[in-house]
Specification:
Elements (H helix, E strand, L loop, with lengths): L4 E2 L11 E3 L2 E4 L1 H27 L1 H8 L5 H17 L1 H15 L1 H19 L5 H4 L2 H17 L2 H12 L5 H29 L2 H8 L1 H5 L1 H13 L5 H9 L9 H6 L2 H32 L4 H29 L1 H25 L2 H25 L9 H17 L2 H12 L4 H19 L14 E3 L8
Parallel strand pairs: 3-4
Antiparallel strand pairs: 1-2, 2-3
Helix pairs in contact: 1-5, 1-8, 1-9, 1-12, 1-15, 2-3, 3-7, 3-19, 3-20, 4-5, 4-7, 4-19, 5-7, 5-8, 5-12, 8-9, 8-19, 9-16, 9-18, 15-16, 15-18, 15-19, 15-21, 16-17, 16-18, 17-18, 17-21
Length: about 475
């Protein structure tokens, strides 16, 4: 009969996981707490992005006054995209730091910075009050947000993946993107309510500040939950291998030593984030700014799509545990390649039913990525460089392709006059993602690279 011993804390790390010869047995209570805290942090991040995207037209009037609505929207999305340009820098700082001092400490730090950046936006005076200083301050706040989020997604997905049992990693990881959708719905729902209740003048003069100011108390709650987390068993075991503090892993090794995995990561994140930002960030502005669709009804359609995605999300995550990550991701790529044009034609038809059907189809295809990526991406890298390498690959791809999607597509439509550009852009991303999933190895049900097999002491439960 094999003995089970508690993993000894190392370098101040705590872990209530247990370890039998060659196997880590995780504490389901810790797994549940880790998933909730990581998902809440992601929800806060995307609450901000959702608010910024859905209220972009109003922000254009407040910070970039101009007689040209397209120029205002381009300026607003330019500030939106600027945050993504510094994300790789944040990833290069927070990722290696997370591999050296621990995932939990870095995730607490990114939470503080995210909340501060978002809260600050709500305090910035308008262009009419301080002139050019207003858009400059907006840009600074966005850069703080972007720098902090450089360590957020990679850290949160790594945290859940390293806590989760091998056979449940897809299901548990899917709750991270459940938090994303919850944040989007919270932000979009609040903007929709404000749009319905406030006059256009009130929304422009003071109402737009409310969603950003909410980030303050949300950040305090998220920080409290993250400070109560314990370090992951995989990281604690990695530290225990060294009798002293872990040596630093050079940044060069995180890149050149993992070049193949990094390329796969960039390709997978490209299709994931182009389609994500296209549907959840750009489409509301596309409906109102390009198709002149009623703003409130357009937002309600998008909210309905996100609610549908939330319902499907955990089931799709569990499906990746049963049939694998690769088939689910490949299905999403094939779907976007074939259905992007028909879906956008439905959306352009303009009726509520047609818009709902087109958006719903794109939303269900996006679930193929939101359900699989949080477990597939961390499995590309070994424990000692997982946080750092994933942060670098993820943020480079998001910065170049994901966060710039609203800006690029808006500019392409303005330059060509072709309203089908969103569909063509998603199809191109699907081709890149399809090649990446073809080259990646299946990770479902298998230990993370560099980690022992992981099982649960009993069936974990996240709901409730």
């Amino acid at each position: 009969m094999s003995t089970v011993s508690v993993v000894a804390p190392a370098s101040g790390l705590k872990s209530r996981a247990a370890k039998s010869p060659g196997t880590t047995v995780t504490d389901p209570a810790l797994v549940k707490r880790a998933v909730k805290a990581a998902a809440l942090g992601n929800a806060m991040e995307w609450f901000d992005f959702g608010v910024y995207s859905y209220i972009a037209v109003t922000l254009g009037k407040v910070f970039f006054p101009s007689g040209n609505p397209t120029a205002q929207l381009l300026s607003t999305f330019g500030a939106f995209a600027a945050a993504f340009l510094v994300r790789p820098l944040g990833g290069m700082v927070f990722g290696p730091l997370g591999d050296r001092v621990g995932r939990q400490k870095v995730l607490a730090l990114t939470m503080i910075m995210m909340a501060a950046g978002t809260f600050a936006i709500g305090l910035i005076p308008s262009y009419a009050t301080i002139g050019v200083g207003a858009p400059i301050l907006l840009l600074v706040a966005r850069l703080v947000q972007g720098f902090s989020t450089g360590g957020e997604y990679a850290g949160a997905s790594t945290f859940i993946a390293e806590y989760a049992p091998d056979k449940r990693r897809g299901f548990l990881g899917s709750w991270l993107e459940f938090g994303t959708l919850a944040g989007y719905i919270g932000g979009a729902g609040l903007v929709t309510l404000m749009t319905a209740l406030l006059s256009a003048d009130d929304l422009t003069s003071w109402g737009w500040r409310i969603p950003f100011l909410i980030a303050g108390p949300m950040g305090i709650i998220g920080l409290y939950l993250r400070l109560r987390l314990e370090e992951t068993p995989a990281f604690a075991a990695e530290v225990a291998k060294a009798e002293t503090d872990r040596p630093k892993v050079p940044l060069r090794e995180m890149i050149t030593g993992q070049w193949r995995a990094l390329l796969l990561c960039v390709g997978l994140v490209l299709v994931f984030n182009v389609t994500d930002y296209m549907l959840l960030s750009y489409m509301p502005s596309y409906l109102t700014g390009q198709l002149h669709y009623d703003e409130t009804h357009g937002l309600l359609v998008v909210l309905g799509v996100m609610a549908l995605m939330m319902i499907v999300q955990p089931f799709a995550g569990a499906l990746t545990d049963r049939i694998g990550r690769r088939p689910v991701i490949a299905t999403g790529c094939a779907g976007f390649l074939v259905l992007s044009v028909p879906a956008l034609l439905l959306i352009r038809e303009g009726s509520l039913l047609a818009v709902a059907l087109g958006m719903g189809a794109l939303g269900l295809l996006l679930v193929c990525f939101t359900a699989a990526m949080p477990s597939a991406l961390p499995a590309l890298f070994p424990t000692k460089v997982r946080y750092g390498s994933l942060s670098i690959g993820f943020n480079v791809s998001v910065s170049l392709f994901g966060g710039t999607t609203p800006l690029v597509v808006t500019a392409l439509i303005g330059a060509t006059g072709n309203m089908m550009m969103p569909a063509y852009y998603m199809m191109a991303a699907a081709v890149v993602g399809g090649f990446a999933v073809w080259r990646m190895a299946e990770s479902a049900g298998r230990p993370l690279p560099g980690s022992a097999p992981s099982v649960a002491g009993r069936e974990p439960s996240v709901a409730g």
